[in-house]
Specification:
Blueprint (H helix, E strand, L loop, with lengths): L7 E3 L17 H10 L12 H9 L2 E3 L2 E6 L1 H6 L2 H9 L14 H18 L10 H11 L8 H16 L5 H5 L3 H17 L3 H16 L9 H9 L3 H10 L10 E3 L10 E5 L5 E6 L6 E6 L3 H11 L4 H8 E5 L5 H10 L5 E4 L15 E6 L2 E7 L4 H10 L3 E3 L4 E3 L4
Parallel strand pairs: 4-6, 7-8, 8-9
Antiparallel strand pairs: 1-3, 2-3, 5-6, 5-9, 7-10, 10-11, 12-13
């Protein structure tokens, strides 16, 4: 997921070791001190473009124990791998640099594009004011939703902002007039919106951006990864596989074969059930209308920890085996789903056919537990803490009762 797509990493389940001899900036105050005391041109931060540096710093999120969130966006699009290692090492998170970084040829090309743009604008490289498109891009990616905003509302806002800020540029005629740096930012904006909303209109706009980049010899195979993911998420499997075959440098595995399913009931949400081998999948419907159903939005490390604990618990294992659907978002990797299913054969995870079919779920944060009874939501709770907390939440939802000796499933067969 590392190319073009804006990625915000929330740190909590693994903290890579700090590089020996490198400072570890663990708070806003330490960052301010570092920026004040470090001479210009000597920091790994200075390898970023001025706009990239500003955006990267603006998206750093510190907690009590150091950095807890940051964006891959500008580093992965501007820096080589060794430069990213040095940059992330400032914050003790260089372990996240694995697989990131542009080639040395791409890095040199980016520098030449900035020099040419500065010459055309009559300013010095690195000292030019931001273009209108870069200013728009700043606002687009730095917008922060309110904590209580539901996913559907957040995604809709991202789409609205994209249309307002960038849609007027998205024609072949307009693209021809853009500088190379602006074209790259516009492509990144399109890549960003399709990662949340793989709508055909946005996908087409990303395609024309990439076509213009190709016309200017600015594109590499890896630049098509965002388009590939959007085609997969929109279930255009044939087009996605064709794109992967045309650009082998994306280095993606072959998509599972979609097997024919029996007719699906109207109105039920559907999932892709991934075979354990990862070579085939089948679309299936999920009935939430009768009895107890527990839907667990899952996939991350915390979700796996919850699945391990449930699997080992004598009361919860049969409850979840009988009533739970482990569900990943539409953009989940099929390889990751197959890996999960090999690890948890009694608790397989399915991939949403389209998130829009699951409007009863207001958040795709992981893990989030939704308890339904006869089609009505009884309780929703998020996060993984421990088994006792989970059992208490399930009791509050009416899925478990506690006798003197045990916690038991109270739902009928």
């Amino acid at each position: 997921m590392h190319r073009l797509l804006l990625v915000i990493v929330v740190i909590g389940f693994c903290t890579p070791p700090v590089m020996a001899g490198q400072p570890s900036i663990r708070s806003k105050a330490e960052l301010a001190h570092y920026l004040q005391q470090t001479p210009a041109g000597t920091s790994p931060l200075d390898e970023l473009s001025p706009g990239g540096r500003k955006r990267f710093l603006a998206q750093l999120d510190f907690g009590e124990r150091g950095l807890r969130g940051f964006s891959f966006d500008d580093p992965q699009n501007e820096l080589t791998h060794p430069q990213i290692v040095q940059l992330f090492g400032l914050f003790g998170v260089e372990g996240y640099a694995r697989g990131l970084g542009v080639s040395t040829a791409r890095h040199a090309q980016l520098e030449q594009e900035r020099i040419a743009d500065a010459a055309a604008r009559g300013c010095r490289p690195g000292h030019c004011p931001e273009s209108g498109i870069e200013q728009a891009y700043d606002g687009f990616v730095l917008w922060k939703p309110a904590p209580a905003m539901q996913d559907a509302e957040r995604f809709a806002r991202i789409g609205q902002d994209y249309v307002r800020l960038f849609a007027r540029h998205q024609s072949a005629e307009q693209l021809h007039t853009l500088s190379s740096p602006d074209l790259r930012l516009l492509t990144r904006a399109a890549d960003h919106v399709v990662s949340f909303l793989p709508d055909p209109v946005y996908i087409i706009q990303l395609q024309i951006d990439l076509a213009e980049m190709k016309r200017r010899s600015m594109v590499e195979d890896v630049d098509y990864r965002g388009l590939y993911r959007a085609l997969v998420s929109s279930r255009e499997f044939t087009s996605a596989q064709l794109l992967a075959d045309q650009h082998p440098g994306m280095d993606v595995t072959r998509l599972p074969v979609l097997r024919q399913s029996s007719p699906l009931p109207a109105g039920w949400p559907t999932v892709l059930a991934i075979g354990e081998s990862g070579r085939s999948m089948r679309r299936e419907a999920v009935d939430l209308s009768t009895g107890l159903r527990i839907v667990v939005v899952a996939s991350c490390h915390f979700s796996q920890a919850a699945a391990h604990a449930i699997e080992a618990d004598a009361q919860l294992q049969p409850l979840f085996a009988k009533h739970a659907t482990w569900l990943a978002s539409e953009g989940e990797s099929f390889d990751a789903a197959a890996d999960w299913n090999r690890e948890f054969p009694r608790q397989p995870i399915h991939v949403a056919w389209r998130n829009s079919e699951w409007l009863m779920l207001d958040s795709w944060a992981m893990p989030t537990f939704y308890v339904f009874r006869d089609g009505r939501l009884s309780k929703r709770f998020s996060g993984w803490h421990d088994l006792q907390t989970l059992k208490q939440s399930l009791r509050e939802a009416g899925a478990l009762v506690t006798s003197r000796h045990a916690t038991i499933d109270v739902t009928p067969d």
